[in-house]
Each structure stands twice: as structure tokens, then as C-alpha cells.
Hints:
heterodimer; A: 156 residues; mainly alpha; Four Helix Bundle (Hemerythrin (Met), subunit A); elongated; B: 1268 residues; alpha/beta; Beta-Lactamase; Rossmann fold; seven-stranded mixed sheet; six-stranded antiparallel sheet; 37 helices; 29 strands; rod-shaped; disordered N terminus; transmembrane (chain B)
Amino acid sequence: MWHGIDMCSLVYSFAFVPCACEHQGIVDDQFTQLRKLEDENSPHFVMEVASLFFEDCEKLINNMAIALEQKQGVDFKQIDECIHQLKGSSSSIGAMRVKNACIAFRSFSDGQNREGCLRCLQQLSHEYSLLKNKLQTLFRLEKQIVAAGGSIPRVH
Amino acid sequence: MSCSSGTGNFVKLSGLLGEIHRCALVKMSMNGKFPASTCRLPANSRLKKAKEIMHRSNSFKKWNRYLIFLWLLGFFSVGFIWFLTSFNGVPSEGTEKIPPSCEDNARILLQHFNVSKNQLHALASFFYESDQVAFLECSRHSGPEKPSSDDITCALNVLCSKKPDFEKQMWVAKSSELKDQCPVRVENTPSAHDLSFPEHDSYVVLNAVSSLPWEHHTSRKNISRRTAPGVQSKDHCENLSFCMVKGCWLLLVGLVLSCQIPGVRLKLWRSRESEPAPLQPVPQKLQLLLQQKHQQQAQGPPKGAGKWRKKLLIIFVLMGILTSIWLFWHLNQKINLRREETLTNMCDERARMLQDQFNVSMNHVHALALLVSTFHHGKHPSAIDQKTFGEYTERTAFERPLTSGVAYALKVLHSEREQFEKQHGWTIKKMETEDQTLVQDCLTENLDPAPVKDEYAPVIFSQETVSHIVSIDMMSGKEDRENILRARATGKGVLTSPFKLLKSNHVGVVLTFAVYNKDLPPDATPELRIEATMGYLGASYDVPSLVEKLLHQLASNQTIVVNVYDTTNSSASISMYGTDVTDTGLLHVSSLDFGDPLRKHEMHCRFKQKPPLPWTAINASLGVLVITLLVGHIFHAAISRIAKVENDYREMMELKARAEAADIAKSQFLATVSHEIRTPMNGVLGMLKMLMDTDLDVVQRDYAETAHASGKDLISLINEVLDQAKIESGRLELEDVPFDLRSLLDNVLSLSSDKSNDKGIELAVYVSDRVPKVVVGDPGRFRQIIINLVGNSIKFTQDKGHIFVSVHLVDEVKGACDVGDKVLQQGLNLVQDMSSKTYNTLSGFPVVDRWRSWENFKTLNSKDAVEDPEKIKLLVTVEDTGVGIHLGAQDRIFTPFVQADSSTSRHYGGTGIGLSISKHLVELMHGEIGFVSEPGIGSTFSFTGSFAKGEVSSLDSRWKQYDPVVSEFQGLRALVVDNRSIRAEVTRYHLRRLGISVDITLSMESTCTYLSNACGTSDFAHLAMILIDKDAWNQERVLQFRSLLKEYRQNGRLNVSTNFPKIFLLATAMTPLERSKLKTAGFVDNVLMKPLRLSVIIACFQELLGNGRKDQVHRKKSTLGTLLREKRILVVDDNKVNRRVAEGALKKYGAIVSCVEKGQDALDKLRPPHNFDACFMDLQMPEMDGFEATRQIRSVETQVNENIASGEASIDMYGNVSYWHIPILAMTADVIQATNEECMKCGMDGYVSKPFEEEQLYSAVASFFESG
């Protein structure tokens, strides 16, 4: 139905961003599933979940960073727990690349490889910021659409 | 002859035919532009070749026509030849042989006549000197001599008495005969005589009369006899020509068939080929093409036909050669036959004439014998002495031109010898040598006297020429003796064998007649005859001169050589005449009867020359050969032409197939590549968009925006190219799905509204009432066309005016006189309203006459077209007030990649492909597209499209999303205040879609009057809203309305239950700030942003009028919803994101969800009594994981159950539930068998994968919720 791209509307962008994210592997089908859960009763469900996720994620990443910076003996158990948490929530929200980063991270933490863990943490935080950026763009668009008097196209 | 002349004609004609054929061929080749001999393709230029091939294939048909023409020509010419030959046979043959035969006959007649005449002459001379007493007897005896003048005797008898007259009469007769020398006048003789001698009605006349018919008869018989072979030969000729014609016919028919059949096959093949092409998808099409090509190569049907034709041609040529050989042989045979026949005729004729002449002579000798008998022995004393005899014989010698002399020998017995010798005064002498009678050149005196014999035959009289034989005893010669004995025994003339004559040294024979003393009966015995013998008359014949003279008389004696032989002794024939001849092939032998039965003579005739070459046969056969070869050549040329053309055709087909394949491959490539480009481009665009949302400085933002705009242009270009490629490759197929045309237009409007609002252009859509709600067609493509046209309009409209899309039925505009639709009337009234300052258009700016944009449409002009009732034709017009298209470019705007002019793309961008695609799409919809444009005023594009009427029920849910809402507004009334009627109509159209009936007033002032008029009526009671356009906006008036309405309400004239009419402002461009200002100021209840569309109106109205009717929009609940509805579910997860997600998901299905984050909490929550229906538990949790939690929950439950069962605890304590078992489902990300088993072991009821999958969740939940 949507042929011309010349209709550069918010609606298009709004529809496009998740597609682009999914195309780049930032999010997967789970995210679409989540968006499907939005309805009149919970119009901002995704936004809500996402902010929970961001909050949680930032805290965990922070924890892990601190843990890895410990000079005398890194608490890999703690890191492992953190990764598990992060992996669970990222898979729930459908943040695929974050999840994949977690999986990679976990193999290093299992191997008690600090350097690897540090690298992975960096990667993880990068993926996280990417995801956050995307989702925030999406939410801003949503807000703009609502502000312009339009209705948010629901995913069915 | 007739045949040969016929063939001569044939040859000529065939030459002509050949000429004609050649002409035809030359003409043909000229027409075809490739003369057979000179046609050489330039091998280096392929293009040229292909062109030429095309040309040739065109002339291929022409060729076939020429072949048929050729065939007809051949048929006619052969028929004509046949006709000629059959016709020629008749007249030519009659005249051929007659002249010579006639001449011959005339000569013969003349001869006979002369003979008779001579006879008479001889008689006359005799009378002259002798007594006439014995004449009677003599004439009676000489009767056989004059077979043709039997009547003479009577005439003479009568006339004899008039002796003085006789002489005169003889003379007259002679003279008259002299006159009759000319043979031609023979037939006229009777009349001539009648004229010249009227008083002498005498025998001459009689003679002529009596004799002529006979001759005539003979000649006629002769003619008829000669005609017979002619007829025969003619028959033969007919047969021959008929056979030839038949043969030619068959061959021609065969050839033509051979030409026609492959033609038909070709045609069939072509049509079969062209059949399946269009609807194949591309790869199959490609494959099909290749397959066809292979088939072509494998089968090669025309090639086989070509071979067949060649074989036929060879057979034809061979048959022609055979025919010509046969014709030669046949004609040669005929010529030989004719030659032989001629020879036979000539030979027979000569033989007969010789025989006749000889017989005449013989008769004369016989007559002489009788004369002697009459006058010598019958008279006493004898009337004849040597002198008389000599003189008479000398004078009548002309009668016997062939005899060298006659002599009479008396029969003298030995007893009478002395007396005889005494009487004559000489002794009987003997011949010197026995075998040389009359020949020796010596004096009689020198001869010895004859020896004593029984009888002697001394010569007593002799002609002067042979006077030397007087007194010689003829019996002394052996030959002569035998002759004499035979003659007297038979009483007929007897011949000796030939010998050399004495003086002339010619070969001669002696004829001997016996003279009897009395008249003997014809059946007298030999003894009687011997008894009666008185003497012997002998005559010697000079055969060569006889024959020579005879031959001299006859025509064409130059051509043949005649030999006469005595064949009495068959083993050793004696030549009597003629030189030794060389064998010239043909020989005819005719037997001669000289009256002597013992002797046999033959005449041998030969042609002098060898037969000449049979030119007629050679010519005819050569002619046939030449014709055959010519026709063969023509057909060969034709066949090779056909083969060549067929080859070219095949080659062309191959090239065509290749070109088509290449074309399809190109389109396919384009489509694929375009698609491949589009995917990453989406990424690029998305990223750019995101980049623009990040914190960028001004320059960066500018770069990003430029990149984004370019990317968008590229994408749109790619999309268009893709469409174009799809259209070109024929892959673009239209869908047939029902859709709501009005919603679709709303959608288009909403997409374009951004730009139009930016530019300040008013954008509106209007659909006629008569257009059904649901139509069946391709919504995507329809929308694409409209988007394209609207996009163009927006692009080319500068900051003023409007763009107006209207949809009508074609039927509505067909009859211009009864246009009911108000929007359509606008175009008609346009001209009339020109005087007023503003135009009666949407925005007040002038527009072009939209009627002109569709005036050339065929569908509009064909008024009698019978329409399918299920089909509707829509007419869509997109009207703008843009820059317009200048006239020079108007005819090429539908060409792909061509814009009105090159500056257009500079100013406005774009590729110019959109209109081309639109045109193709319209054509696919069986419609037409047209436009009218005036620079400076604007353009109007119109197109038609064929759609089917659809049922509302058949609509996809996508189109139905407003259906429940619409019913809310049913029955309401609205008042539209707008100073432009068209715009008011558009508003009315939108409101009517919601079931709101609309009244229109053109200004605020009239609204007041309307309100006061309507006050109190039911209409006013239902008046729910007043929509005021911004152009008609007037703040004071609005306040006036408010107070007016309040007043009416207070007066109680308004029903309390009805709501107060809401006031809306219709605005094109208005900032949110202005809007909120107006709203808070209380002027309006809400502001409706144009372009008007259903969703906006509904949203706007719902906000004000709707009383929380959101519930009415029921979503279709899934089965999961029915299962989980109102179920209380506890979600246990330490991760709050997960918790929230799970909660959201379950809530969606209607479940009431509680969350805890620790296993311990779950344990507390689930300690009976509780009111949870299920628990979803995460497995991995800090402190207490899912397994442990479950185990503990289960142990608590077991304990409680035991207590209840054992009665330790009352059932009331545990919420009247006798058996506690909460379904616990594990939530796990990694569903593996081991986990599953462990779950079961620790007392879980099942598991669900962590991001919930509907299917899996359902199956897990269903197992324990379905029953309850």
C-alpha cells in the first residue's frame, strides 16, 4: 500500500523506525509482539517497558563496570548474575543485539576472562545506547504524532 | 505433318511462355528487392540484414501469390497449346497430299487419253490406206485396247458411212484434243466441246463424258485413301498432346501443392507460436522462448518440405526430358513411316504405270497380230506384203514407243519348206547362235540355211528397223523356239528373259504372239491352238527406255531410284533397268505383271538420298526440353527463394526470440536490482532520519537533511523504475479486491496534506453520491495514480489556490445536459461566473475547463456502448491552479523520462516517469487518461478506470475500521457555513459519509436567518454542529450565534435532552497555539484541520460528542482471551522488564495479573487460601529459583490438602476448596528437554517460552483452563 516514499510524514517514519531496527537486528520479533500488546487500555506499554529496561540495564551495566574495575579479584559470579538479568530482560523486550552481546559476555565471564569481559562490556554498552537511541526516537515520534492530532498506527 | 506443324507452334508458344515466365520472375524479384542472381547479403551489417529479412518475410506472401499466378499461366498456356495442336491437325492434312496426287492423276488421265487418241489415230492411218471391210473385226479385236472408249465402236459404226466427213472429224478431234492439253481444264471439257462444236454432237463428247467420271471417281478415292492416314496421324497427335497436357497438369499441381502445404504449415506454426505468449510469467516465458527455438531447430518443417519440393522438381525435369526423348522417337518414327509410305506409293504407282504401258504396247502388238491374221491370212491374195507391213509398222511405231521393232514369222512345216522357199525366193536361214536371236549384227545372206526340222518359223515381214531378220528361222533359236511354242499354246503374249539388244545395247525382252487362222474360243486347248497357228508376231522391247520414259513422265522422279528385275529365276534375278545402287536404307519392292504368267518381274524402288535429319522431331523435342528446363529453372529459382525466405524467417524468429528474451531479462534484471537497491536504501533513509533526530548542529542537520531528501528521491525513482520495468515486462497485474474508494482517497489526502499545508494550498476530495461505497479493483494502483497526479499538482502549484480531486461515474458526465451533481456543475457554470471577482472554484482561483480534459475519451463518446451492470466506470479528475504545461510540451508528457521541458526538472525535480506509469496503469484498468492545461491558470488531469461494484460485506477489515463509529453520528444534522459552494459541497460530502445531513449557508448573516427560521423545528432539534469555514469566519457573529442558541434554549424551545450545537472552525493552516487560543476563548468547540478526511472528523467529533464510546470498538478477541479472561495470574520474575512484559501480554488476554519478584514472595502469595488461578514462574531467580519455589509451594499445598482430607483443617479455612493445586508454568528462554523434565519433577504443570508465543502459550494454558 505504501508506495511513494515522498510522503515523508511522521506516520511513515514511525512505521519505518521499528522496521529499520528489525532489519538491522537491533530488535527482533519480540519487540513487534510487545508493540502488539499496546491498545487503548495500555497505550504506552512499550514505552513503559522500555524505560524499565533502560533503567535496569543502566544499573546492571554500571554494576558490571564497577565489578570489573575491582583490582583485587573480579567477582565473576556477580557479573554472571548481572548478565543473566540483562539477557533475560533484553530477550523479553526483543533487543536482539543486546541479548547477543550478553551471550558473548557470558562466555567470557564463565571463562573468567577480564579483558574479554571488558571488551564485551564496551560492546554491550554500545549496543545498549544504540537501542536506546532508536527507541527514544520512536517514542518521540509517537509523542509528535499524538501532539499533531494524529492517531498512532497500531500494529495488528 | 499436322503434328509437326502443331509442335512447331508449340515450340514457338513455349518460347513465348518462357519469355512470360522470365518476365514474371524478373518482376517478382524486383518487387522483392532481391533479384535471384544478384542478391548478396552484406555479411558485415547485421542490422541491415535483419531489416532486409523483415522485408523479405513481407514479400513472402507476395511470392506465394506469384507462384499461383505462374501456375495459372502455365496451365493456360498448356491448355492453349493443346487446343492449337488439336485444331491444327484438321485443316492442314487435307491440303497436303492432294496437289501431287492430283497432278499425277491428271497426268495419268492425260496419258490414257493420249493412248486412246493414239489408238484412234493409228486406226485412222490404217483406214487411210487399207480397206475398211475388215475394220469391224479389227476394231472388235482391238476392243481391250480402248477400255475407256467402249462407246467408240457404235459411234464409228454410224459415222463410217460418211467417209468424206470422217477425215475432217478426226482432225477436229485431234485439234480439240490439242486444246485439252492442259490438265486443269479436263473437267470443263464437256461444256467446252459443247460450245465449240455444237453441230457435231459426236463421240468425242461422249467419250469424254463417259471416261471422265471414272477418273474423277478414282481420284476421289485416292483422296479419301490418302485422308485416312492423315486422320490416323491426327488422332495420334491428339493422344500425344493430351498425354503431355496431363503430365504437365499433374506436375504443376504437384508443385503448387508442395508450395502451398509448407505455407499452410508455416502459418499454423506461427499462430500456434503466438498463442501462449502473453500470460506467462517471465522465467517460463524465457524458457518457452528457448524451447520454441529448440523445437524450431529440431523439427525444421520447412526444410523437409523444401527437400520434398526439390525431389518433385527433379522428377518433373526428368519427366520432361523423358517426354522430349519420347517425342523425338515418336515423331521420327512417324516421319520414317511416312517416308516409307511415300516410297510405297511412288513405287506402286510406277510399277502400275509401267505395267499399264507395257500392257498397252502388248495389246498393240496383239492388235498387230490380229491385223496380220485378218489381212494376210484372211485375204486371198494377201493384202499385206513386206512393204505394206513395213510401212504400216513404221507408221504406227509411235504407238509402240518401247518396241525396237516387230516382225512376223510364218509357221512353215518341213513339208512346205521347199514350196515356201520357192515362193519367197530365199531359203530359210538359221540363227547364228542359238541364244542370240535378232541380235547379231550380220547380214542374212551370210547365215546358213536352217537345218532340217519339223517346222520352221521364218520371218516374212518385219519393220524396217529389223529388216535384217527376214528369212531367219525363229525356231532355230532356243529361247525363241520356247517362246514360240509357249505363245502358240497359250494364245497370249509371251516374254523372253531379258538380254542385250543388238543395236541400242539396251536390255530388252521379246514378246511373241501367235497368229491363228481362225477365231478360237478362249477355252481352246493347246492342241487346238497349235493346229490353228498360222504364224508368230514378235516384238522386241527396249525395257530401259520404256522405264526411263515412264519415269520421266512422273513427278519426283529425282528423289527415287528405280530398278526393274526379272525374277523368274528367283535365285538369280536379272536386272532389266537401273544402275547398281547404293543402299540408302529404305527399299520397296512392287511386283510387275507384264501379262506373261511364267515370267515374274519386280520393281525395286529406293530413295536417292539418305533420309534427311528429322528436324521437326528434333525441334519439337528440343522445344519440350527447353520448356521443361525453363519451367524447372523457374521453379528451382522459386524453391530456392522459398527456402531462402524460410531460412531468413527462421533466423528472424530466432533473433526475435532472443530479443524478447533479452528484453524480458532486462526488465527482470531491473526489477531485481531495483528491489535489491531498495532494501539497503531503506536502511540508509532510516538511519539518516535517526541521525536527524540526534543532537546535530545546523550544518550537520542541513547535510543530513539533504542526504535524506536525496535518498528519498532515489527511492522514489527506484520505485518508479521498478514499476516501469514491471509494466514493460508485462508482470504488472492488477488485483481485484474490494476497497472503499472514499477511505482510500482520505488516505491519499492525509499523505499529501503535509506538503499542501506547507504550501498553503487547499486540498480537497469529493466523491459523487452515485459512486458505490465499495468497488472492486486494485486499490494500490488506483491510489498510486492519484498520488502521482496529486503529487504533480502539489509540485507545480505555488502557494495559492487549490488541488481538487473529484470522482464521478462516467455516466454522469455523458449527458452534459442533466448533470445533477453540484460539483460537476461547477465546470459548466465556470464560464458564466467569469464576471464575478472570484471564481466559483474551491479556492476562488480560476481553473481550466475540466470538461475539456475528457472530451476525447472514447468511453465518453461511444454513447451506445452496452455496459455490464456489474461494471462501473469511474472518472477521476485532479484539478489544480498550478503553473500549467506550456502548449509545446503537452503532447509528450506521457513519454517516460520526458518532462514538459528540461528546465522543469531543474525547478521541480522528478524524473518524468510518473505520468508514463500512470498512463500504463490507467490502460491496465481499461481506462484513458487525458488532461487540459493552460499556462498560468492550471491543469486538470482526468482518467477513467473500469471497476466492479462490490458488496460492503466483502470489505477487508482494514477498510471497516470506522464502521462502528459512523453509526454514532447517524441522524445528526449539521450546518455548514461557507462562502464557496464547492467547498461547502465537499464538506457536505464528508459529513454525509458519517450519516450527518447537512444544510449549507453561504455566509454568517444568512446563518442567523437560517437559525431563526429553523428554530423550533425538528431539524433544529437535531442540529448537532455548526461548521464554519475560516473564510467566512467572523468572531462577533459566532458570539452572536452563541447567545442566539442560548436564548433559544432558555426559551425552552430546545429539547433538554439534545446537546447544545457545537461550533467547529474549518481551517487549512493554523498553528496549535491559535487553535488553543480559539478554543479557550470559547469561540469554537474545536478546530477541524483541512484537508477534511473521515478519520480527522471522527476524531474531532468523538472528542466532543462521543461519550466514552471507545468500548464500542471491540476488538476481536482471540481464543486465548476467552481462556484467560478474568483469570488471576501470578507472575514471578526477578527481572522487572520481564515481569512487565509478561504482565502486559497476559493482560492483553484479559487476565488479572499480579507480579512478584522473588520466589519467597510467590511462596507467600500462593499459600492457601489464595485466589490465583495460575502462576507463571521464572526459573532462574536469585535466592530462590523457580524450581525451589515450586517445590515449596507444592509441599505447602500437599500439607494443606492432607489436613483437609484428614479433617485436621476445615475446608472453610481454605476458601471452600477441598483440593489445592495451582497450575504453575515455567517461563524459560531455553526450552530444552532436560529443563522440561526437571520442571515436571519439581511439580510444575508446564512451561512457556519466555517471550510469549501465542500458540505455545495457548496450548500450555489450555490444558488446565479449558475444563474450568
